[in-house]
Write a structure and sequence with these properties.
- The chain is built from 14 helices and 4 strands.
- The chain is mostly helical.
- The chain has one domain: P-loop containing nucleotide triphosphate hydrolases (Rossmann fold, 3-Layer(aba) Sandwich), CATH 3.40.50.300.
- The strands form 2 sheets. It has a two-stranded parallel sheet with strand order 1-2. It has a two-stranded parallel ribbon with strand order 3-4.
- The longest helix has 21 residues.
- The protein is globular, with a radius of gyration of 19 Å.
Length: 273
């Protein structure tokens, strides 16, 4: 969704946009933890842009756990600005489950790749049934990673956020560090549930990239097409009781961080207005 929007904005605002997708044959967790590909690509794009169009901004997009950029500082003149967009933890949990099992409504190459990777794990049961059965509902999603990747996306990779997120103590430490990251590491963190407000905020704070974002999002036929194409094929949605069960323990820490991000988001929105 964001990548599509940036592709549409690139010729309008005259910036360079590079998307780094996960290779089909590479496991997800090493790709997310290791920043080398992101840093290498950013260095390459930066050097290329400085030679050809030094006044243009560049934006590199990748699924990546936060890391210490200081370990890779290839030039004193270049300090990147990090932004992110996050989702309500329960909706993220639900979407992840059904995407891994069902793919998108219209199966693109990415959707088909995910389905093939998870073919041996696929379950015909609904997420509602799994959450009601499991003492720890996170078992429904992934028995190795469980729900911890949500905190990882805000706290950092194993070096930057060196806590065992399978333990209560580790999660508590990660929550505190994630809140610090939200304040000092990220310039902006948007919310999927407030998408139009997110675009308004990004447009105000980073006009060189997101200028006209709201208008393009609402009026572009291509944007509408991609939005419909990349919707997850859901099964039975979670009941109020199951959502409360997830809130009670499994996603309690994730919600703590999400609510803090939401607070900061609306503070910035109010300041902007």
């Amino acid at each position: 969704m964001m990548a599509m929007l940036l592709n549409l904005l690139q010729p309008i605002n005259e910036f360079d946009f590079y998307l780094l997708n996960m290779p089909a044959n590479e496991p997800a967790q090493p790709f997310l933890h290791n920043p080398n590909k992101l840093v290498s690509a950013t260095r390459s794009f930066y050097i290329k842009t400085q030679k050809s169009t030094p006044d243009r901004s560049i934006l590199v997009m990748k699924h990546q756990y936060p890391f210490d950029w200081g370990d890779f500082n290839f030039t004193k003149d270049y300090i990147p600005t990090f932004i992110n967009v996050i989702r309500n933890p329960i909706d993220h949990f639900q979407s992840s489950y059904y995407f891994k099992n069902n793919g998108w409504v219209n199966n693109t190459a990415m959707s088909i790749k995910i389905l093939r990777m998870n073919r041996s794990k696929r379950s015909v049961e609904s997420l509602e049934t799994c959450v009601r059965r499991e003492e720890d509902p996170c078992q429904c999603l992934d028995k190795k990673v469980k729900c911890s990747n949500y905190l990882r996306y805000l706290c950092g990779n194993i070096r930057f956020c060196p806590f065992d997120l399978r333990t209560k103590e580790g999660k508590l430490q990660a929550v505190q560090l994630a809140k610090i990251r939200l304040e000092s590491y990220y310039y902006l963190v948007g919310l999927i549930e407030y998408w139009e407000e997110t675009l308004k905020l990004f447009e105000a704070y980073i006009p060189s990239i997101y200028g006209n974002a709201g208008s393009v999002w609402k009026n572009s036929d291509e944007a509408m097409f991609v939005r419909n194409k990349t919707k997850t094929r859901y099964g039975e949605l979670l009941s109020k009781e199951s959502r409360e069960k997830l809130l009670g323990e499994s996603l309690k820490y994730e919600y703590d961080v999400y609510n803090y991000a939401k607070q900061l988001f609306f503070e910035k929105l109010k300041f902007m207005e």
